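Hey L., structure's done. Input below.
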Amino acid sequence: MTPADEILDIVDENDVVVGRAPRGEATARGLRHRCAFIEVRDAEGRLFVHRRTPGKLVFPSHYDMFVGGVVGAGESYDEAALREAEEELGVSGLPRPEPLFKFLYESAGHSWWSYVYRVRCELPVNPQVEEVAWHAFLTDDELAGRIGDWEWVPDGLEAYHRLRAFRAGGAAS
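Output:
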């Protein structure tokens, strides 16, 4: 099965399941579905940042400060967060990611409920070559210095700004 064939729950504006569709169809038709975003920090508190591979279905070759992806049909956000983090980082035995907040991401042609998590990864990473073309652990200052210079996935960039507001005591959604 290819990523485009993966079956997703299609949800409404309240995150209630209203149907199912293959991922490729959901992407092509702009059907609202679910995603998990996981902020990964190493033992030194640095953030895992990566560039997506050119073959990705959505936002190919863009940089991202989260690992994660779509929530499969019948899967919970929590299950997807752990699965996606372990897959993309190439690790097993990762602690369960901590849920922080959820928001609805919407842009031209894209719409998904996005649950943001965080996890500390003290294991050596071996990122999935199908997903990650380049990676590094960056300090918050190093990341901030690249925000305006690199082409970021727009949903991850929105999640990043919402996470900063959340940490500052503001509303994330």
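The mean pLDDT is 94. Residues 154-167 form the longest helix (14 residues).

-- N.
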